[in-house]
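Allow me, if you will, to draw on your knowledge of protein folds for a short while. I am sending you one protein, given as its amino acid sequence and as whole-number tokens for its backbone shapes. Kindly check, if you would, that the fold set down in the tokens agrees with what the sequence suggests. The record follows directly beneath this note:
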Amino acid sequence: MSEGGTSVEKFQATAQPSDAGDADVRQGRALLQRRDYAGAIDCFRRAAQMAPDRIGLQLDLGRALRLAGNSKSALTPLQQATALEPHNADAHYELGRAFLISGRPEAGERSLLRAIALNPAHAPAFQALARCLWRLQRLTRIESIAERWLDLAPDTAEAFAMKGGAIIKSQVVARLDEAARLLAKALSVEPGNAAAQGLSRDLARVRLFLELDRAYRASAGATSLRPPDRPGASDGIAAELARRIREAQTSRQPFSHFYLERVFPAAFYEQMMASRPPMDLAVAGAVDANYRDRKGFDLAIFAERDAAKARFWQQLYAAMKSEPVLDAFIDALQGRALSDLLRTRGFRLEADARLLCDVQGYVLTPHKDHCARFGSIVFNLPDAPDHPEAGTSVYVRTDGLNQLDNGWHHDFARFRRVATATYLPNSAFGFLNFGDAYHGVEPLKQPIDRWNMQYTVRIV
């Protein structure tokens, strides 16, 4: 459902006859039709120097810039176009698309709603609006917009896919068959539609997750479990980490989890702390609004500053993604039967690791992780044991509901905190993402930078 593309679209010329710049405008449009975007932009800019307020010219320039892949540069002429022609639906549509491609879907939504208000039959505006809403994850509205889009363009694969995808992401179990029919319709219209193919895979994963969750809930398990001994690598940090994970005491109440201290050898942990990147290299750690205070680190950028320290994390990530660590995680949490089941369904498990810093003010309301996740370990990396309350907390619902709400974040008021895995140096909290695996981070009285490393096992 990505926005972009370089195809030249048909449009109605809106520029009015004028002597100033006529030749450049005509030549620019001819070049645009031939996909010579750079030449078209030069022509429109020369015309704009002679007649900047000429009706339609800024729209021509903005459209050419967008098609050339310069959507941010297109914003200024397109904003001028909407100011000069406030009742031109095409101008608002182009501005909305440029906002979307520039990473500003909320602004794009406003412009596209204006375009639709001016021209309720503007099918491309509905398409772009659906894409904005998809970026914003406004799932209910995506469905209604897709329906209106299909009224205008009945055989549009992307519209069927978007509506089906919204149902899947809403995780309403009773409507999964409806989502399957919509995706099948999309693929019958356009067999190679990438969005429908990807969403069909997502739907299969949701159904698999439901099957795994039912199997987990039905399984009998003691409240304290020990993993079986399994062969692994004989040396290295991967083997040492796998050994420590296997030593964890696992509880199934209220869901399968463990808490472990002294995870890494002391000298190695000191090296981890000494190798942390500086905060001026931090980038956004997640796109979800619930994680706006989470920061991550691009090791390629870090390597330009300190190659040795970046290499340390690259090697640690590789060790954590290894089979011995993954096997230890599965066995420690008694997940082998679930792992075997998903393999019989054509899926597999894949692990990754990344260093994060949840900056001051970070709060994470109770939630279960997305159903693409099998489980996780949060490795706590504080400098000192001064804020044990900053660890991951375990919650139970107080409303008695049992629903597929993986990935949804809830208010604290609807939950009771059962325990907190204390935020201590060189400790870890691991869990399976099945059953009522609600977890989060409580609001802190004294905000801190919360360093941690996330180990995530995904279903792929």
